[in-house]
Amino acid sequence: MISWRKHYKQTLIAIGLLLSTSASIYGQDGDPKNGEKLFKANCTACHALDKQVIGPPLKGVVERLKSEQGLDTAWLHKWIKDNKALRASGDKYANEVFEKFNKTEMLQFPNLTDKDIDDILAFTTNPPAPEPEKTAETVPTGDAAAAPADKTTTNIVIISLLAIAGLLVWILIKLRQLVKLGQSEDLAGLNETRVRSFSEIYQKYHFVGKGLLAILAILATYGIWNWIMWIGVYKGYKPEQPIYFSHKIHAGENKIDCQLCHSSAKYGKVSEIPSMNVCMNCHRTISEYNGKYLEPGKDKTFYDGEIQKIYAATGWDPAKQQYTGKTQPVEWTRIHNMPDFVYFNHSQHVVAGEQAIINSFNKKNPNNKIDVVCKACHGKIDTMNVVQMANDFTMGWCIECHRTTEIDMNNGYNKEYFKNLHDKLKKQYPKDGGKITVDAIGGLECGKCHY
């Protein structure tokens, strides 16, 4: 009896192991939809389903390993969780893969559970079909988008032609009246009273003439002055760049932090144009555009072509996954450019003045609030397909900001350093509660920006 129970228990254990092993081998327990999410979160930096990136393509990897190497998903579990330990154990195939891909060590994922790995493998075996995009959200392009504009243009042309026709009829009527007047006796009397020269007109109306000349001189002086004052002000300027870069896709749709690319804005005076190596941090593995957002008039082929320009500039061969050494400089067109006689420090505004600037802007613009300090000067950059100058960037514009931006007196440095000034302003401006703005601590001094 004891022997039968012992064999019975061993049989159940063996059947359980067999079932779990077979399910694991064929990936029947995995959830492809959850596996897709896990794949995108953990694997897309180095792998794609249908092509080699840094690592090999993973579509059908379970069946491929089984047929070519005789390995099951248990090996894949070990490889994914800790490939370094698997290689150290002397596993032949693990070391072959390591050598084949230039000894590029794969990341370790001890945080993934067995269920997570099964879901990922199920996704690589049977990837779910992509969901069709909603037609209601599709942006009309081509003839559909141009139809309203064409209709409006036609209406404008028709109205203009009618106005011209009316004007011609009116001129003909007046000419007819003049002809009749020339044929009447009244014309002789008018000829006797008319002024025969410009000098006679001037003598008769010289006060009026001098007044008009004075007004014209004032208007001309104002026009010249106004033209001079707006030299170098290019609000709305948005030039085309040699490589198309949509901030709406990168900063808006994908929520990429501004300082990931413009890192020196936080630590230096100038916010530099990112090098192409910064682009390659992502686009080394992103060789095509698969986003849902498409700018009107542009399609996936257009975006893919712009990515290829990045590869040409950096000398990257996506097929071999290596640099060729043949690079091409990119001649970007600068948009924001302060004059040489102006000192402006980005880090001072991005770090020290960050919260104060955001609070001041949101207080003045309750219906157009910002969450990033960069937007106070550069506008809502995450909505721009083509970057443009969103503000005047004039001296008056900067001074107005310094006069209205209140300093945060709650941080330890300001509270201690400006203690006496704070007490003085409380007495000087009791109605405002002694609020300290940037101009009160030297924000309007000439040497602050010009030295």
TrEMBL record:
Residues 30-128 form the Cytochrome c domain. InterPro entries: Cyt_c-like_dom, Cyt_c-like_dom_sf, Multihaem_cyt_sf. Residues 137-146 have a biased composition (Low complexity). The chain crosses the membrane at residues 156-173, 212-233. PANTHER family: CYTOCHROME C7-LIKE DOMAIN-CONTAINING PROTEIN (PTHR39425:SF1), LIPOPROTEIN CYTOCHROME C (PTHR39425). This is Cytochrome c2. It holds the Pfam family Cytochrom_C. GO terms for molecular function: electron transfer activity; heme binding; metal ion binding. Residues 1-25 form the signal peptide. CDD domains: Cytochrom_C3. Residues 126-146 are annotated as: Disordered. Keywords: Heme, Iron, Membrane, Metal-binding, Signal, Transmembrane, Transmembrane helix. It comes from Chryseobacterium defluvii.
